[in-house]
Fold this sequence. Notes:
Elements: E1 4-5, E2 12-14, E3 21-25, E4 31-37, E5 40-47, E6 53-57, H1 59-70, E7 74-82, E8 89-97, H2 107-113, E9 121-125, E10 129-136, E11 144-152, E12 155-165, E13 175-182, H3 183-194, E14 199-207, E15 210-217, E16 223-228, E17 234-239, E18 241-256, E19 259-275, H4 280-290, E20 295-300, E21 303-313, E22 327-332
Parallel strand pairs: 2-8, 9-15
Antiparallel strand pairs: 1-3, 3-6, 4-5, 4-7, 7-8, 10-13, 11-12, 11-14, 14-15, 16-17, 16-20, 18-19, 19-22, 20-21, 21-22
Amino acid sequence: xxxxxxxxxxxxxxxxxxxxxxxxxxxxxxxxxxxxxxxxxxxxxxxxxxxxxxxxxxxxxxxxxxxxxxxxxxxxxxxxxxxxxxxxxxxxxxxxxxxxxxxxxxxxxxxxxxxxxxxxxxxxxxxxxxxxxxxxxxxxxxxxxxxxxxxxxxxxxxxxxxxxxxxxxxxxxxxxxxxxxxxxxxxxxxxxxxxxxxxxxxxxxxxxxxxxxxxxxxxxxxxxxxxxxxxxxxxxxxxxxxxxxxxxxxxxxxxxxxxxxxxxxxxxxxxxxxxxxxxxxxxxxxxxxxxxxxxxxxxxxxxxxxxxxxxxxxxxxxxxxxxxxxxxxxxxxxxxxxx
Length: 339
């Protein structure tokens, strides 16, 4: 009996949907199992069969830890089963996309139907942006289009539509495509077609079977946060709500004669946030930030400072009658406040 990896693999997986157990059949006394992520060996161990079968577990945790360590959102997975005789068996060229949660749909169907985010729409300020990511196969064809809703100064109450076609192929190689969408981008498209002065109301972004709606507001958010979502992609949360800043001073006191002095003074600052009412989808998406492995406070263009989140109160409801408010506290990871 040769050594064979008997568990079948698809060509692509979300990491959370990798097989929970990999079975290896062998007549050898031992087998060395190796796991490679993007060509780097991330796991190696010797296994001893029971009734000519080896059960290799924890593949997901091995792959996700390696991808997080290397900052990868997509990688190539290889699994090798190497007996002392040298007749190795391998699973090769499996694409894996980071995901810390499972979905009902199989990976390929999910990737064809949605962007690498769990929300389908966003309300952002006019100086804000949305970064959308999606996986595409090499030369994959689809209907790629933007529907832009706008008005003109001479008819402010009339909503007009501009369709912008973007071609059928996103990439010549299989990869995750990322695009930054903002008010200025959509306005440029409409102004080039109308001669200028368009006011953008919103847009619907289509890539194949994926759709995402963007709405713009003149209202400025109370806070901006950046975080890694469940797919390991960076997103920006424009938070509308209320923030309370609480300071706690801890210091020692010494009395010399009639004079009192303080020393060893430390100041702890905590920011308590309560969101504006959120829909069920919005609340689930915001909850990702609360448990994300990286969250930062946006300070200025290109400047963000990592924060730590605590004291979370998140009770998400799908009731049609009640919207959700989420409460949480945060502080700067390095302990120093920014002005």
